[in-house]
Amino acid sequence: DGGGSTTMFLDGKIVNKPSDQTGERKVSDAILVFPRKNN
Q1: Taking Cα atoms as reference points, which of 12, 17, 34, 33 lies closest to residue 4?
Q2: Residue 25 is part of which domain span?
Q3: Using CA atoms, how far apart are residues 11 and 34, in angstroms rounded to an integer?
Q4: Rounded-to-integer distance, Cα 39 and Cα 28, Å
Q5: How many domains in the chain?
Q6: Does the reported pTM lie above 0.85?
Q7: What is the pLDDT of residues 1-39, one digit of tens each?
């Protein structure tokens, strides 16, 4: 939802600055995007 605990990883590194002062949340979800393989 883009809230304060939202964290984006790219190539194993955090690429944004989460603003939630309480840190990571216990419940997580993810959206993974992979390139298509050419056949």
Answers
A1: 17
A2: 1-38
A3: 12
A4: 34
A5: 1
A6: no
A7: 677 778 888 888 888 887 887 766 777 778 888 898 887
